[in-house]
């Protein structure tokens, strides 16, 4: 199986270790992984800011770079959801349909496609799990508290196999962190207040590390942690699964 590795802009620029950890995990389970060197943004920031027409050339470029891979995998629920839902505006050609159907967030790819949940990882720390809105409510990676139904979480399933990891229980396990892409710019005060609340919930339950599937959300929380000089780290779940 040949997999195209899609690394979102903010991961590439600010958290390259997350891309490296993702590559290590995929290669560990025997996949042939390629990183298209000319890949660019998926177009989400422009589209979410009301410039969807201007984002179309970027989206079409994404299709050209990844059309020949059996699967496209990215460590970002928000970018993957954008590809899956918004690329239908490009049309319904075989190439576009393939891209929309075969682009997976890393957690979904491991659990649903590869059906592997134990990577022999070791991480002896108390960890708080932040469920991003795009991953949870968009990609349906976990049960939402506002919906009646069976409780499940794919990320929690992966973390449950990590030796030494203690997952802490939060008061509000699926509340938004307030990042919301450009929302944190247009509604700075509200965004910051929401982020402070989320950090406090993790701190209250003595989490040493906050993890999740979207580095954008974790970046928002990390900024608050740094400003308030709190002794908590943020790590993408791929970094934890790659830790041995």
TrEMBL record:
Pfam families: CCG. GO terms for molecular function: oxidoreductase activity. Residues 3-83, 127-221 form the Cysteine-rich domain. InterPro entries: Cys_rich_dom. One of its GO terms (cellular component) is cytosol. This is L-lactate dehydrogenase complex protein LldE. It comes from Thermoflexibacter ruber.
